[in-house]
């Protein structure tokens, strides 16, 4: 599995959380998460 991180867009998940889906397959997903200070992911 190969991903190009700098070309993958960030997506706002709301509540101060931004995610970047780097790669996915039927049984695996690689995600990068960014949290604003004080935010909580559900």
Summarize the structure.
By secondary structure, the chain is an all-beta fold. It is built from no helices and three strands.
State the main characteristics.
mainly beta; 3 strands; three-stranded antiparallel β-sheet; 42 residues; single chain; elongated
Detailed description of the structure:
The protein is mainly β and 42 residues long. The protein contains no helices and 3 strands. The model has no long low-confidence stretch (mean pLDDT 85). Strands 1-2-3 form a 3-stranded antiparallel β-sheet, with no helix packed on it. Helices cover 0% and strands 50% of the residues.
How many strands, which pairing sense, and closed or not: the largest β-sheet?
3 strands, antiparallel
Q: How many DSSP H or I helices?
A: 0
Indicate the overall shape: elongated
The average pLDDT score comes to 85
User: Which sequence of strands runs across the widest sheet?
Assistant: 1-2-3
Order of helices and strands: EEE
Q: Tell me the number of strands.
A: 3
Tell me the radius of gyration: 11 Å
Q: In angstroms, what separates the terminal alpha carbons?
A: 28 Å
Low-confidence stretches: none
Structural class: mainly beta
**Strand content range:** over 45%
């Amino acid at each position: 599995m190969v991903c190009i991180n700098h070309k993958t867009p960030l997506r706002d998940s709301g509540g101060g959380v931004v995610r970047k889906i780097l790669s996915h397959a039927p049984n695996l997903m690689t995600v990068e998460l960014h949290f604003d200070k004080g935010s909580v992911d559900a």
